[in-house]
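sorry for the late reply, my laptop died twice this morning and i had to redo everyting from scratch. anyway the thing you sent over, i finally got around to it. pasting the sequence first so we're on the same page, its 148 residues, then the predicted structure underneath. double check i copied it right bc i was rushing
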Amino acid sequence: MDTIGEITPEIRQKLDQLAVLGNELEAKGQLEQAIQVWQQGLELIPEPRQFYGETIWFLVAIGDVLFQVEEYDKAHVYFNDARGNLTGGGYANPFIMLRLGQCCLEIGDEKNAIEYLLRAYMMEGREIFEDEEKKYFLFLQNRVDHIE
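ok and here's the structure:
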């Protein structure tokens, strides 16, 4: 039987450092380097990674950068993995649902785009769409009754 590894205080400290460094690199516009740093963080998390909430930090960070540079198919993979995290509440995270829905729409999966965008809307209301391109809210509004 497989056992779940442990995130030791040393690993947790290194994960925190890598998360901060990745954020700093992203803020400087060094996106490829930020992704590499966050990938290092993911690799430190014991398998199976979906059992650790820390996994979501890195998956979402990488996915969001990929979304920003319009690599929607790659971003979709990261947000879908974050959605499936068993301890981090991926399905209950409105940002993950929003980005996953946006990625689905961009790659032509309208059925799942509706599901995830609607989940984000139901958790946060219209506000979650305020800083996003209007096309995402309009897409949802045109396909689901009683969305205003």
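The chain has a mean pLDDT of 94.
thats about all i looked at so far, will dig more tmrw
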